[in-house]
Every structure is written in C-alpha cells, then in structure tokens.
Amino acid sequence: MTRFTVNGQPVHYRMDPATPLLWALRDASNLTGTKYGCGAGLCGACTVHIDGQPVRSCQVPIGSIEGSFVTTIEALSRDRSHPVQQAWVAENLPQCGYCQSGMIMAAAALLDKNRDPSDEEIDAAMTNICRCGTYPRVRRAIRRAGRVLAGSETIAAAPPPGIDPADAARAVPALATKPGG
Predict the structure, then answer these.
(1) Contacts of 21 (CB under 8 A, 6+ apart)
(2) N or C terminus: fewer CB in 10 A for the chain?
(3) Domains (ranges, CATH) in the chain?
(4) What pLDDT, in 10s, does the model give residues 2-12?
C-alpha cells in the first residue's frame, strides 16, 4: 500500500507500486484534470506538483513518492482564482484546452520561484507541448500572473464558468424523434 498526500488529503493507494501517478490520480482518485498526453513524459499534459516541484506524473511510479505531497490542477485554487488561472483566461489563452492544466501547473511552479522570469527562463520552464501553438500567449499570461503575484497588477476577470459536478453527473434525457425522421 502506497501512502502520500494528494491535494491536502492523505491517500492510501492499494495499487501496484509501479503504477504511474497519473493513473492513480485519474482512475483511483477521479482527479481527471491531470491529462494523459503521450505517456512518455514528453508533452507535459500530466504535469502535477510533487513537494512543490513540477513533474510529469506519467513517469512517476507511486511507490517512489511515499510520504510526498502531490498537488493537482484541482487544488491549485478551488475557485480558479490563482493568478496563473486568471491570467490564462484574461489572455484568452485556451484553445482546445487539453494541455492547459499541465501548462498552468508548470507556470505556477515557475512563478513560485521567480515572479519576473525572462523569456529564456519561461522557455526553459515551459517544456509542455501545445498543439494549438499558444506559446506567445503563454508568455504573456505568465508575465501577467507574475505581476499579479508581485502586487503590481490585478485582473478584473472573473473565474471562467464551471460545471457543478452534480450537474455534470445528471443523466441526459433521451431525444424524442418523429417516426420516419
């Protein structure tokens, strides 16, 4: 049994210790904000924080992080008020959105260490792949979030609308159809 803390809650996974953290989070804990992209640690869609460091969760066996603290996108801020999340919305960054949770987690880790990163520092920290090519907006959003964290700017944008989990779980009524149509 593997024990560590996920989003502030102690967990005991009764899974093979070689199970990638990504699958423990998604399948056993239903934390689906962490995405499966490549499974080889290259794309960054599965980025989470382990003890404050960004890591590709598809490459981390759960047995190797006994006693660690894991933070997923769901706990970065429960109301989407984290400056990186706010800057992402304010800069109209998401397109398809698949890579976004991993990028946000990588950006948050960067800004925890450096509130005013250079282009080179952003590029070095943001190795996540975005198939939509949002990289220029990623830089702008990171710079903006850094200014918010430093207290020199505020973002007036409200958190993006969400779906209440209770609403998402409701069954969709069957569509009525006309005979022959």
Answers:
(1) 48, 50, 57, 58, 60, 61, 62, 65, 70
(2) C
(3) 2-76 (3.10.20.30), 83-150 (1.10.150.120)
(4) 999 999 999 99
Rounded Cα distance between 28 and 15, Å, is 9
Q: How confident is the model at residue 176 (pLDDT cuts 50, 70, 90)?
A: very low
Residue 27 near residue 9 (C-beta atoms within 8 A): no
CA 111 to CA 138: how far, in whole Å?
13
The overall pTM is greater than 0.90 = no
Segment 97-150, tens digit of pLDDT: 889 999 999 999 999 999 999 999 999 999 999 999 999 999 999 999 999 999
Amino acid found at 11: V
Among candidates 152, 52, 40, which has minimal Cα distance to 110?
A: 52
